[in-house]
Amino acid sequence: MSTDLATLRKLAHLSRLELDESKEQKMLGELNKILNWVEQLRELDTTDVEPLVHLSHEINVLRADEAKNTVSHQDGLRNAPRKDSDYFRVPKVLD
């Protein structure tokens, strides 16, 4: 499988990439190497290979998720640029 320059330019446009001519040739070569590698992978017989769900068998040990206030209400409002008695004041976003 091989990609031509027109396809590369279309992909670059869709990806919002700007490539000059020297970079186009380099990118085209690298893209074709990747596609050739994927084509080699397709040739492998994977009929007896189990799907991989996790990369390792280790289990995460997480702490319990407990809600608690670490910052008081007054401390949270202390550095606010604009505040009302108990709330942050923000610019209006809807008309």
TrEMBL record:
SUPFAM superfamilies: Glu-tRNAGln amidotransferase C subunit. Its EC number is 6.3.5.-. It catalyses: L-aspartyl-tRNA(Asn) + L-glutamine + ATP + H2O = L-asparaginyl-tRNA(Asn) + L-glutamate + ADP + phosphate + 2 H(+); L-glutamyl-tRNA(Gln) + L-glutamine + ATP + H2O = L-glutaminyl-tRNA(Gln) + L-glutamate + ADP + phosphate + H(+). The keyword Transport does not apply. It is an enzyme of class 6 (ligase). Keywords: ATP-binding, Ligase, Nucleotide-binding, Protein biosynthesis. InterPro entries: Asp/Glu-ADT_sf_sub_c (IPR036113), GatC (IPR003837). Pfam families: GatC. Heterotrimer of A, B and C subunits. Belongs to the GatC family. Allows the formation of correctly charged Asn-tRNA(Asn) or Gln-tRNA(Gln) through the transamidation of misacylated Asp-tRNA(Asn) or Glu-tRNA(Gln) in organisms which lack either or both of asparaginyl-tRNA or glutaminyl-tRNA synthetases. The reaction takes place in the presence of glutamine and ATP through an activated phospho-Asp-tRNA(Asn) or phospho-Glu-tRNA(Gln). HAMAP family: GatC. This is Aspartyl/glutamyl-tRNA(Asn/Gln) amidotransferase subunit C. It comes from Hymenobacter cavernae. The gene is gatC.
